[in-house]
Amino acid sequence: MRSSRLFLLLVFAIVILYAAGAHAAGVDMKDPRRALGREDDVRIDAQLVQDTISATSPLNVTYQVQNFTSAPVAVADKVCDISYDAESRTITMSIGSEIPADGAMPHVVLIGPGEKKVMTTGGVVHIAVPSVRSPFVSVPGYVQIKVNVLRDLGPFHELIARQTQSSLPQRLSDELFDKWIEGNDTIFLNAIPVRWKPGSHWVMPEADRQSVGTF
């Protein structure tokens, strides 16, 4: 009798831990660090892990892709670029591949019709901001996330199948490279306010000193 109670308690604990883990992996829709973007029945919710940014701080995000269309879509989940525009004081995090680098097909995650998937990504912010405090010095105030979604998967079925079977990179022909660009849809999410942490600053390489404020 006692062993059966212990078994039931163990099963209950596992269920609770699994539920907690599933909740933690999602996007908190009430979090002020959340952003939303939707276009042509593909919805993306994203949540920043941190809301305080410094010159060389990591920038991590959890994002959720919901596909309300009748066909699968894909996101190159391992591709993430971070840039900064000093004029708008906005850090832009670009997720997914708008133009595949070196003609290689990036790893993609498929989101089927009516399906929702949660992923995480991140990078390091490198921003050249003068260390002198002044009202005339522009510092980052916002983070905007954009996600590149591949909508037309028809031409890539064979490469996607190979990708699931092999760790070797798959090459895109010139025709498929063009179709990737044509089938890509960039979805912009609303900008999220962030706080700038002064103190440490990134020392700009000599070659880049003529382009202050760039990534």
Description:
This protein is of the alpha+beta class. The protein has one domain (33-204). The chain contains three helices and 15 strands. The chain has helices at residues 2-24, 157-165, 174-183; strands spanning 34-39, 42-48, 52-53, 58-67, 73-75, 80-85, 90-95, 104-105, 109-111, 116-124, 142-150, 170-171, 184-188, 192-193, 195-196. The model is unreliable at 1-24 and 200-215 (pLDDT under 50).
Layout of helices and strands, plus pairs?
Elements: H1 2-24, E1 34-39, E2 42-48, E3 52-53, E4 58-67, E5 73-75, E6 80-85, E7 90-95, E8 104-105, E9 109-111, E10 116-124, E11 142-150, H2 157-165, E12 170-171, H3 174-183, E13 184-188, E14 192-193, E15 195-196
Parallel strand pairs: 3-15, 7-11
Antiparallel strand pairs: 1-2, 2-4, 4-10, 5-9, 6-7, 8-12, 11-13, 11-14
Keywords:
alpha+beta; five-stranded mixed sheet; four-stranded antiparallel sheet; 215 residues; 34% strand; disordered N terminus; disordered C terminus
